[in-house]
Recover the amino acids of this structure.
C-alpha cells in the first residue's frame, strides 16, 4: 500500500470541510491540480473513493467519512503530543447521535449510558426535527437517530429501524391535585390537563380515549416538548399525559404522582440507522448493551 502521510490527511480534511477542490486549494494556497493529485494518491493508498461529485461540489463518501474520523483522531493525537511529552493522547472514537427535539432526555441518557464517560469514546449529541436529522443520517454526518416516529419507508429507503423500548403513558400530577380514590373519568372531567401537541402519537391516542369515555377535558396547556410537559407538571399547571420515564426523578422523590395508567396508549422509542458498508462499531456495543 502507498504511504499515507499527514500532508495527505491535511489536504483531505480541507477538501472535506470546504466541499470543493477550488475552495480548499485557495485556503491552502496551493493549486487545484496539486490538491487533486494528492487526494487521488490518498484514495489509491486506501483503495476507496473518498468523494463523489454532486453538482459543482464534492460529497464525502462513506469510506471518506470513516477516513475523516481517523484523520481527526490523528490530528488530535499530534496536538496532544506537542502539548506534553508525558501524555501523547489516545485516539477517541466518535459516535454522532441525533435525537428528536421532543424525545425524553431520561430515555436518551439511559440508552447512551454504556458509552457516556468512557475515556476512548466521544459522544456527539444533536437535537432537531425528524427531517433534518434523517438528512444528517443520509449524508453520514450522523451515525444514529433516536426518535419516537418511524420514518416513512419504501423499497428504496436506506433506513434500518430498531424498536428499543415501549413505554406506558400515564396521567401524572402533583399529589394534592390527585387526591385518593378518584377514577380516571373523574380526573379527566374535573382537572385541567397538560397534553402533547396535536400530531403526536400520544395525543392521538389520548383524544381517542377521551372520545370513548365521552368526556371533554379542559386543556390547561399543550406542548410539543417532553421537557416542557415535565416542567408544567412540576409547576402544578394540571395533570400531564406523559410517559412516567420522562418524570422518573419527580416520581421517585414524591414531587409528582401517577394518578392512572392510560391503557392502550404507549410511546415507542426507535433507533434509526442507515444501511452502510462500514457501520460505526460503537453502534453494535450500544445495541448489545
Amino acid at each position: 500500500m502507498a504511504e499515507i502521510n499527514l500532508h495527505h490527511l491535511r489536504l483531505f480534511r480541507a477538501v472535506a470541510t470546504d466541499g470543493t477542490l477550488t475552495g480548499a486549494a485557495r485556503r491552502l494556497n496551493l493549486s487545484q491540480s496539486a490538491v487533486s493529485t494528492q487526494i487521488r494518491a490518498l484514495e489509491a493508498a486506501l483503495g476507496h473513493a473518498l468523494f463523489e461529485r454532486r453538482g459543482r461540489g464534492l460529497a464525502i463518501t462513506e469510506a471518506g467519512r470513516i477516513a475523516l474520523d481517523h484523520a481527526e483522531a490523528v490530528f488530535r493525537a499530534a496536538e496532544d503530543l506537542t502539548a506534553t511529552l508525558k501524555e501523547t493522547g489516545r485516539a477517541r472514537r466518535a459516535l454522532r447521535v441525533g435525537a428528536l427535539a421532543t424525545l425524553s432526555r431520561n430515555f436518551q441518557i439511559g440508552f447512551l449510558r454504556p458509552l457516556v464517560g468512557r475515556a476512548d469514546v466521544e459522544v456527539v449529541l444533536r437535537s432537531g426535527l425528524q427531517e433534518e436529522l434523517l438528512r444528517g443520517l443520509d449524508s453520514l454526518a450522523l451515525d444514529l437517530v433516536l426518535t419516537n416516529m418511524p420514518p416513512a419507508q419504501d423499497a428504496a429507503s436506506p433506513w434500518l429501524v430498531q424498536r428499543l423500548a415501549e413505554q406506558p403513558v400515564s396521567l401524572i400530577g402533583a399529589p394534592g391535585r390527585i387526591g385518593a380514590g378518584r377514577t380516571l373519568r373523574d380526573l379527566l372531567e374535573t382537572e385541567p390537563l397538560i397534553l402533547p401537541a396535536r400530531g403526536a402519537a400520544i395525543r392521538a391516542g389520548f383524544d381517542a380515549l377521551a372520545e370513548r369515555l365521552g368526556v371533554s377535558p379542559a386543556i390547561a396547556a399543550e406542548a410539543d416538548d417532553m421537557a416542557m410537559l415535565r416542567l408544567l407538571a412540576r409547576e402544578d399547571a394540571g395533570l400531564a399525559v406523559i410517559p412516567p420515564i420522562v418524570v422518573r426523578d419527580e416520581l421517585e422523590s414524591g414531587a409528582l404522582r401517577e394518578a392512572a395508567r392510560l391503557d392502550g396508549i404507549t410511546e415507542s422509542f426507535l433507533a434509526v440507522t442507515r444501511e452502510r458498508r462500514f457501520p460505526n462499531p460503537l453502534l453494535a456495543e450500544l445495541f448489545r448493551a
Notes: Confidence is low (pLDDT under 50) at residues 83-90. The chain is about 40% helix and 25% strand. The beta strands are 51-54, 57-60, 93-100, 121-128, 144-147, 159-173, 193-196, 219-223, 239-242, 257-274. The two ends are 37 Å apart (CA to CA).
